[in-house]
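Researcher: Go.
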Amino acid sequence: MTICLRNRQYLPDWGKFTTMPLPAPTHTLVLHGTAPRTLQAAPDQTLLQVLLHAGVPWPVSCRNGTCRRCIGQLAEGQVRYTVEWPGLLPEEKAVGCVLPCVACALTDVVLLGPGV
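Model: Structure:
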């Protein structure tokens, strides 16, 4: 018998608790366009990784936020960037432009694009 309490697991045979990893939460990525799709994104995956893994054709080049080839637009949701300064102007960020190659979902997101 195993008893799980949050991230601790009781092993009666050993008479002690042990730490076990919690499953990582996922966020929903809804892609709007000619063929809308709903995908699951782990917190450590960039939006581009999720898109490419699902076979979504999305333009890409540098994968580090500088070339802007993968630019899209967030219709809903929030992201965090894996680099300190992604290649977006403050005005672009304000209207929802996003670089999927360096953006990870913080919430469920709706993505428009590519090529906004």
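Model: The longest helix spans residues 47-53.
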